[in-house]
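quick one, two chains, predict together pls
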Amino acid sequence: MTTAVASTEAPQDLAAARPARESRRRPPRATRPVGGAGASILLWGYAALALVPLLLMLTNSFRTNGDLISDPLGLPSPPTTASYVEAWTTGNFATYFGNSLVVTVGAVALSTAVATMAAYALARGRSRIFRWLESLFLSGLMLPIHLAILPIFYLFDGLGLIDSRLGLTLMYASSGIPFSIFVLTTFFRQLPEELEEAAALDGASSWQTFWRIMVPMVRPAVATVAVFRFVPIWNDFLFPLVLLRREDKYTLPVGLTNFFGENATNYSAVFAGLVITTIPLIVLFLVATKQIVAGLTAGMAK
Amino acid sequence: MRRRTGLVFVAPALALFAVFVLYPMVTAFSYAFFSWQGTTRGAFAGVSNFVTLFTKAPFTTDLPQALLHNVLFFLGTMLIQNTFGLAIAYLLYSRPRSRRVLQTLYAMPYLVSPIVIGYLWTLLLSPTFGPVNTLLTKVGLDSWALPWLGDPKTALWVVILVSVWQWIGFPVLLYGAALGGVPEELTEAARVDGATNRQAFFRITLPLLVPAIGTVSVLTFIFAMEAFALPYAFGGSTGNPAGATDFVSLLFYRTAFDSGATDAIGSSSALATLLFLIIFGGAYAATAVLRRHERRITA
């Protein structure tokens, strides 16, 4: 889901990308919690409902298959990692994991790099062509790129990019450009132009100004864009489903589908596969909650 | 920045965007207006590929059914997210100390791949060893221990509820931010004038939240019309059981890559174009209505 569709926000509204400031500006209110203790219990109860299925996925992955069938509500006692060994080696998850990592990291790095350069030029360029190019890029926010899968398939076929991790990387890098440019141009516009004027007086080239002065200043926005793009690329299913045919090139979501189809009754190994697919995102979320929340709210209209 | 330098900075992004996004999008539409024999493009065919969608099997049966499922999926998720999601956000807003933690917990399932979510709930809802039905039986609700995903009558509702479960953190976050934008002087003034919490919410806060509700609804619409991975995980590319979880994008995928029909490219491209028009038209109309409303509340 492209969260940035229907966006018409003014630069200053992007304060959402820095949630830390929100809490500083608004001190905790003295009013009583609406709904009282009953509502609090409901809120924490729903939090449990959000988490328990994910926890069940984790606990069940440490149990044996026989144990899962005889006692569906049981806990791992004692925990066993046999299902992980099975999924990782015979289930090829080691290969799928490596492919997902290479493609996602490559695409996020490439996409963020080219989008940061472009966003700087679009924010600072005075010629009318930059306004036009900016609207062209932003129109991409509204294009459901998955509907173009057929021409993409034939394009990849013509370029010899079917079954290529490089091809998939290029595809994801490109489809992420509109969102990245959208967020980054707003940030570049907030920086005072005196910065570049001072740098120019000191004899810095455009590239030096960009790389040494501007990029360090928008680093939080770059982090938001990179972290937020990581999630949908890691999870994407349609592109690898269509563009990859060889099993040794599969990324995790397609590899998982393959594994589920062949091992539908080997429940514990499937649970282990689900956890392997999910773990990197949980780790990412724990170290970068702020960036993910900022990315989610960056698409708000008002 | 000089114009030439600027264009050098834009060039790499523009090249990638043009080759892998713009070019495929534009050709995707053009494909729909030609006749196809396998991968060979024939003569210009006007709207005949679109006529196929409404006159030939399997579209005459599959397309209305899939489209209905997309619409129900949209209505279901939108109604629950806009009531339940807004209620949660409102309750959280008066709890500044636990708000951040709870928002984070609600957003956790959003991170997980829809494919993983689909398989996870397939296993949890399994009639033979699933913990959900085991629990229902244990607490005496045997009549509720149904084959949720095996029965065409309940399967679609499982897809809808699981999708809401995955995405609810998103409206909670958006409504939380929108509630922060409602001037407190307004609700305070209403309370001073003797309004109850309920009156202040329905008369003042809710009308000011309409733009945010509109944004959530439009995004949900686009999301629901494009739904692919979650139903694929639940019912495969044919929308099992018995097409009960079939969606337009699944039909598109089947037509393009699984049907083996000689005019597959033409009819599937027509289907993609139709879906694009529905998404774009719906989102555009809704946004226009919202703009009008916004002008009214700011005037």
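Residues 59-93 of chain B form the longest helix (35 residues).
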